[in-house]
Specification:
heterodimer, A: alpha+beta, 5-stranded antiparallel β-sheet, 4 helices, about 40% helix, globular, B: 6-stranded antiparallel β-sheet, 6 strands
Chain lengths: ~160, ~130
């Protein structure tokens, strides 16, 4: 089993260069505020339980034939890319649902209704294959993942998630 | 073996895709995800034809699919053969096992497969076990 571990703080401490008790107090308060801000930024998805859900899917699908139809196992590489992709999503992104496909890719789905839905498949190579039904139109394609979420996919998440 | 298995699949037939994995069901509304309709590497997606089967027999076939591994049968996704063919796919019967068929004609490109699987999932009805 792979443990879901949180990422380090996103923002670093601020310093005005001032000294003395008042400056020390302000610095401490600033650090505390910063810590809370980091927690709230990271909380978005971390506190939603998404990483535990990802772990659970990996545990269920890390052996071949996990679906009874002869599926490939989910690889550690696919898990790692999915984890980092989730970590890279900006504040405010709604929680996706985690799944898996027969070729061993991990899927993340943002779903509003049958015709407003986005699915992103994450390959062991770090490719992001996406498909979205957007009312009467649709969009699909592939984007590489280099640590930042592709704008195309962020835009699609936004379109699908608008209530 | 039923002779029905040998006959061509009509557009008005129902097909069952069994769901042995909870990750293929949306927890929010108990509908099926497109993941359940993604083809394997050989691009032949297994389904069972309803025709000529009682509901009990249908579930027995589903149970036999998951018996190959220690898994729970969570339900099945029913879809019309006509809805499958609207996506430029075909449904081809096989001689074994009973009432088995393959959904064929999938594109090779992964994202093109995904958009079709989404259309199939949108047309399907999930029935919990």
């Amino acid at each position: 089993m792979i443990a879901a571990t949180p990422s380090p703080l996103i923002l670093g401490p601020l310093s005005s260069g001032a000294t003395g008790p008042a400056a020390q107090f302000v610095a401490e308060q600033s650090d505390e505020s910063l810590r809370r801000l980091n927690d709230s930024l990271y909380l978005g998805l971390a506190q939603s339980g998404i990483f535990e859900e990802l772990c659970g899917i990996y545990d269920q699908c890390s052996e071949p034939n996990w679906d009874g139809y002869g599926a490939n196992a989910i690889s550690v590489d696919a898990y790692g890319h999915a984890y980092r992709f989730l970590e890279s999503l900006p504040w405010g992104i709604p929680k996706p649902s985690v799944g898996a496909e027969p070729d061993g890719y991990i899927t993340l789905e943002w779903h509003r209704s049958p015709r407003w839905t986005l699915s992103v498949s994450i390959s062991p190579d770090g490719d992001l294959h996406y498909a979205a039904l957007l009312g009467a139109s649709k969009a699909f394609g592939t984007e590489p993942f280099f640590g930042e979420p592709p704008k195309t996919i962020l835009d699609l998440i936004g379109r699908v998630s608008i209530a | 073996m039923s002779e029905t298995s040998e006959l061509p699949v009509e557009d008005d037939e129902l097909l069952a895709r069994f769901v042995p994995f909870s990750g293929w069901i949306r927890p929010s509304n108990q509908t099926v995800k497109p993941d359940a309709f993604m083809p394997p590497e050989n691009l032949e997606l297994s389904v069972i034809r309803h025709v000529g089967l009682s509901i009990q027999e249908l579930w027995q076939i589903g149970q036999s699919i998951v018996a190959a591994r220690p898994a729970k049968l969570h339900g099945r996704a029913d879809i019309g053969a006509g809805d499958v063919r609207k996506q430029s796919l075909d449904v081809v019967p096989t001689s074994q096992p009973r009432n088995h068929a393959h959904i064929t004609g999938w594109p090779r490109e992964k994202s093109a497969q995904k958009i079709i699987a989404q259309e199939l999932a949108a047309s399907a009805t999930f029935i919990g076990r």
